[in-house]
Structure prediction request, 466 residues.
Amino acid sequence: MKKIIILYSLFLSFASFGQVGIKTKDPKAMLDIKGTNYNPDGTSNDEGKGTLRVDGNTNHALDFGTLSNSPYGSYIHSRGKISNAGLPLVLNPTGGTVGMGTSNPRGALDINRGTTNTMGLVLPTNSGPQNIVNPMGGNVAIGTTMYDSTLDCVRVFRSSGWSNCVCECNFTLVCSSGAVTGVYTEATQSSGTKIINYTGGSGQSYGAISVASVGVIGLTATAPAGTLVNGNGSVNLSITGVPITSGTASFTINLNGKTCNFTINVTANNNWNSICTSKEYGFNISTNPNSPTTITVQGGKTVKVYAKVTQGSRVAVRDPYTAFSATATQAGITMQRNYYRIGTLGDLGTGAYSNVTLVFDKPINFVSTKATWFRYVNNTSRDSQLISTDTGGKLKMVGIQGTPALRIRTEGQTLLAQAVTGVTDFSGIAFTISAENYFKELTVTYETNFNDILQAFTFCDAQVLD
Prediction:
């Protein structure tokens, strides 16, 4: 028993101020442990080299010690006792802050030394983000940051995946110098290209680009995903679509954290054909949704349509051609074989629909309308044509033809053509409907009515979206 006590006293000493020393007779702190300098390398050689160990009841431990190589210093090593692998080291697991170089951390982690810190933060480095893992398992945590040694830049994991290289300060987009090609005409399938030049590229990858035009809508600028060259280069955009109207189409391009803008001039369409006869429809459109009528439009595309109709007259509705025939033509607008009678009178045994809604199976635009007014109009109940769509947005009459003695509203949420003369009226109007939004339902009804109008649709200017 005496031998054990004597041996213990060789390693443990007590100073006069209540300090404890292990393997030292001159402790410099409340507890001073004299150990051996060592650099842990994550192998079995680490075992027993730590100056102090906090040991759990399983196969992991926390070692403390001093380093043996310049610039020396100390280490804290959370490790497996058998595998020797590094294990998680958790600081302030229930909250709080951590300061390095400061006693007053201003965030979850504050690495600072006033304004005199001469050492930077070195990020974890790998040849690609695909090699970065979450040590807790599962997906990489959003906000994870690494240095990509292949692309030579910093990247961040976001909700959409790994980012491209974090902004290079000298990277610049130059929209103004890139050429624009192509012809862009309202209501016409248009296509061309735009070159976006850049300077200061450094091999960053970028995602696919797809930007819709504003101002004049209907065009889209696209480019596949790619990689910027080192130095100066360019990205080739493809521009396609059907501009809704004429004017200026504007695009804003975002690439690698930089933005630039460019515009394209869309010219007016001088070839509207709202009075075309090869594709004139009305009473010949099916009213059966299970057996719609098929119409061929521009580009050889087809669209299926049926009509939802509401009877406005007391008399049952039948084909009005038997009553009007060629007299349906007024003011230069010639109605062909197929047309509706829109209103509430429906005399001459034809009846009339108060409302006709064309229902299409695809989004459509630039449908044309033809209508004629025929006699017996008074100043209090004037025949009218009121047009709307199911998608809202602005509608516009374009390519107006005929010599209408009409009050017309050429732009707005609805379009209106209304008789203005008293006693008798012989008017006709035809135009193409340019809609801000492609639609699947087009409705014709009336705002005021006396003796009905004759109404047909043409599709020579029509465009559909597949």
User: Anything to note?
Assistant: The first helix runs from residue 2 to 11. Residues 1-10 have pLDDT under 50 and may be disordered.
